Amino acid sequence: MTATDTRPTDADLKTDTRQNGPQPGAAGTSTLDPIEVDKFSRLASEWWNPSGKMGILHKFNPVRLAHIREQACLTFGRSREAVDALSGLSVLDIGCGGGLLCEPLARMGATVTGIDPARTNVETARLHAKTSGLTIDYRCTTAEELAAAGESFDVVLAMEVVEHVADVPLFVGACSKLVKPGGLLVMATINRTMKSYALAIVGAEYILRWLPRGTHEWDKFVTPEELADAMADNGLAVVDRKGVRYDVLRDRWVETSDLQVNYMVTANRAG
Question: Model pTM?
């Protein structure tokens, strides 16, 4: 590590991944998949290395942030050009990992809470936020626990999380309960199509090696219709759907109308 490297060392992250956060409770009360939690716990020290195993998320971040900012500004009547466009808004990032979304959202003025069931991820995020001079409320907990406690937020995010949970309807229900009246739920995931199998698994994991092999399971992918139905069942109305694709020539991710692979869905709760 260099003198300016803010990545945590193994000593900073001394946590047994077998005791890495909230554990699933009785059947039907938790969406946690222990295998998935352990998988991402083992990658904790990689979160802030743009050239490492999480490099694809660093490239993915700009298009995600632009989408979140646009939807929040449209909903809450903010200027998209303002540096502090999200000032005064409470934002919850579910499955925050090392804080790649939380930190730029905090810089836009939002009051940010980041949650993750993997304690090593939370400690990584806390350490990096501290070295960055940012105040972010990081917690090792789940969406279900926050919903049960009656907490709510202006904007709730679940980006690249739903394809890793054990019970999609239960998870979407918990996320929906956390949205304040007039607030937004933004979810990003991968469609369950043959094209997504070819690109998101074979291409990204086995050929291009953008992600570690086994990061995704095709049968856990969720279609936009399934996601929209789950949101509607919980009193939310879909207001926007966007696909996301990798632009090889410009070496960046861009929005598209094609929802066959990566996509984002935004829904609101009536005020």
Answer: 0.82
